[in-house]
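Late entry, written up from scratch paper. The run itself happened at the end of the previous shift, but nothing got recorded in the book at the time, so transcribing now.
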Amino acid sequence: MKAKVQAAIDKIRPMLQRDGGDVELVDVQDGIVTVRLRGACAGCPMSQMTLKSGIEKFLKKEIPEIVAVQAAQ
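Output as recorded:
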C-alpha cells in the first residue's frame, strides 16, 4: 500500500513543486496517510486546503482504500 501511495504522490508532486512546495510521504497506516508538507507549502496559510482539497482528494480517487490524509506533527 505504501508503494501505491508513493506512486500517486509522485504524480502530484510536480504541481506542488511549481509553486515552490513539496510533499513527503511519512507513513500509511490503516488507510490513513501521513505526509509532511515542505518548502513553500510548510508555512503557507492555504496548506490545510492543499492537504484536504488537493492531496487527499487526489489520493482517495487513485486509491479508494485511503480513509484520510493528515499532516505530520
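The helical segments are 2-18, 40-43, 47-62.
(Scratch paper discarded after transcription.)
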